[in-house]
Amino acid sequence: MAAVLTPDRILKEMADVWRTLGSQAESETGMGVLRACSMTLVVIAAPRDDSQALGETIAALMPEHPARAIVIHPDAAAGRDLTGRAFAQCWMPFGQRRQICCEQIEINASASVLEGALSVAAAIAVPDLPVIVWCRDLRLLERPEFRHVAALGTRIVVDTAQSPDPVAAIRLLERRLSEGVALGDLSWTRLTRWREMISQLFESRKLPKSMQVRVGTISPVSARYMGAWLVDSFRSANSAVTLEFEPGSERVELSGDNLHVELTRSGERLHTVVDGMKHCGSLPPVSDCTLMSEELKIVGHDPIFERTLRSAAVL
């Protein structure tokens, strides 16, 4: 039977892990291990999550974003007790002999004791470093326990892509933002390449006085973010804007006086047409690891995303 989890027990287990790793590395290479940590990453898994795949994603994040990772797994069989374990994620950079290691703590908790699991996570978070919460269960934002998530995290990252009601999901995030919560949404992060291409196209162009914007279904939430971002960008440049959503295609079309731009996704390519001139660039699928790696570079408020979220909520 697994022992009941407490902050003191976790801290003791972590100390034991480091002693063991240090002794092994000293005997094998004579160099010990390097302990790396730039933040605390709290991952609140969803019931549908594959634990192994999620663990692989977290391990892949560690070399670029070393962290004390605390993963809270939903476990209906856990009852009123918290169970779990502490261990280390290690890697050896190419050409070096010393291992670099990060701590990982796994907590199993039923829905009824999620508040207790969050309290444990708060107690073992690394002092004086950011705490990023990757909340993979969007429903948690509507539950009373979310106040503990908000209190724990410097920033909360979610993914609205699978929401059955994209408008409701965006408005829910906007309400949480209005409460002062620093938020990120992977549905927004998926638009990075699109936004970079559009920004490059307009770097040296004088914008028409009016623009027509059509946005295809990149994904229901991402399309609203894209529309809101384009409207805000053109209005800030003193262009009048009309916006339409076009279901059934992954494309953005921008039209104005003597200007016509189209960006269309086809497989892993992004086809761009500017006033009849064609260009084709790479747009490979992005994994959760790639998206989170981008989000972990932001440890507080993201003003561009937050402005877009507010605009998307009232489209």
Please give a structural write-up.
By secondary structure, the chain is an alpha/beta fold. The protein contains ten helices and 14 strands. The chain has helices spanning 7-29, 51-61, 114-124, 146-152, 166-178, 186-189, 192-201, 220-236, 288-295, 303-312, and strands at 33-35, 39-44, 67-74, 83-91, 99-109, 131-135, 155-158, 183-185, 210-216, 240-246, 251-256, 259-266, 269-274, 277-282. The longest helix has 23 residues, at 7-29. The model has no long low-confidence stretch (mean pLDDT 91).
Strand fraction equals: 25-35%
Q: Based on the structure, what is the oligomeric state of the protein chains?
A: single chain
Give the CA-CA distance, first to last residue.
53 Å
> Helicity level, as a percent range?
25-40%
Number of helices: 10
Q: How many extended strands?
A: 14
Q: Give the low-confidence spans.
A: none
Describe the secondary-structure layout.
Blueprint: H1 7-29, E1 33-35, E2 39-44, H2 51-61, E3 67-74, E4 83-91, E5 99-109, H3 114-124, E6 131-135, H4 146-152, E7 155-158, H5 166-178, E8 183-185, H6 186-189, H7 192-201, E9 210-216, H8 220-236, E10 240-246, E11 251-256, E12 259-266, E13 269-274, E14 277-282, H9 288-295, H10 303-312
Parallel strand pairs: 1-5, 2-3, 2-6, 3-5, 6-7, 7-8, 9-10
Antiparallel strand pairs: 4-5, 9-11, 11-12, 12-13, 13-14
Briefly say what this structure is.
The chain is α/β, with parallel strands linked by helices and 315 residues long. Helix content is 36%, strand content 28%. Strands 1, 2, 3, 4, 5, 6, 7 and 8 form an 8-stranded mixed sheet that branches.
